[in-house]
Amino acid sequence: MSLCMQAATYLAGAPNTIAQPLVYTTRISFTLNGRDTELEVPNHHLLLETLRRTLDLTGTKDSCGIGVCGACTVLLDGEPVSACLTPTVFVNGHAVETIEGVAQEGLLHPLQQAFIDHGGFQCGICTPGQIMSAKALLAANPRPSVDEIKAWMMGNLCRCTGYYAILESIQAAAAALAPRAQC
Ligand code: FES
Ligand code: FES
Fold first, then answer.
1. Is the distance from the beta carbon of residue 84 to the nearest atom of ligand 1 less than 6 Å?
2. Nearest Cα to 132, choosing from 77, 79, 91, 168?
3. Which of 38, 79, 124, 168 could form a disulfide with 118 if both were Cys (CB 3.0 to 4.6 A apart)?
4. In this predicted model, what pLDDT tens digit does every residue of 154-183 receive, in sequence order?
């Protein structure tokens, strides 16, 4: 038997020694848009991929991927966070809200309606993140000044509208929500 044949015969009978990558996972439970949710997630997964790929919630957008643009903003216990930087295991025991949870019983949230009425979006890539950030703002400060809106929304970039329509949309939503805030 030639050397080549001997080698081929040896390799054919050899166990597969190519190491498979180990993936460590963790079971987590959290509230997602008001619903109790349990998942087994790889420890290295980020919330953005868990939402978009595992849970098929594609309203949260994937844009810069490095925490700069705000397109992936979701609320974690009511606070805006970049889902592209948040390890999914960190949400264990917490409440996550995405754009899919903003409309209630088929009715748009006043922020969503205001973005439509005031032209706060064009392509829409930034819009879910804008709305989630603005929702957190109005929860903390129901009647923000223009400067307060600008400062709060600084982490949400838009390449389409310019920012005036977004500012107007948030102001309009604040006005629409104000009577409820006083109740
Ligand atoms: S995609 Fe997360 S901040 Fe840009
Ligand atoms: S509407 Fe296109 S990026 Fe903002």
1. yes
2. 79
3. 168
4. 999 999 988 999 999 999 999 999 876 654
